[in-house]
Description:
Blueprint lengths: L1 H33 L7 H27 L2 H31 L4 H33 L18 H7 L1
Helix pairs in contact: 1-4, 2-3, 2-4, 3-4, 3-5
Amino acid sequence: MASDLEEVLADFRIVEDLERVGDLAKNIAKRATAIVNEQFPIDLVLELKRLAGLASKQLEHALNTYLDRDAEKAIAVRDGDEQVDVLHSEVFGKIVARMAEDSGHVLGLVHLLFCAKNIERIGDHATHIAEAAYLTATGERPASERPRRDLSSTMSADHAASKD
């Protein structure tokens, strides 16, 4: 009975995470329409696409671990969030550095910053889903906290400029 209750609670948590992912995707779409005519450096566009692809794969793998009740893969997905965090920090630094160089495109770059952060948050929700998959598969929470490697909230302007 307790395991059934844990599974129902995990289902609810996953639904909440998926709802939030939908909200984040909607916000990205709104911002994309605001900057559709902007021209951004190709390296920045490619990095953002890479970040989006990584977060999307994390979400797909997280859902599969839940469906398969695979605790080992759930931990691998959770640990994979480090890649999303590191890449997000790099993208954040590059965008901030571009803002300093090109004040004419600051508004578009601000929209890109928000898109990048929303993508990083999608990765975090994929991690939550993977943790719920682990709990469902094992009846326990993962033994350790996941490492967090997103440095954007503590990055200074000097540090961001030196990353480019």
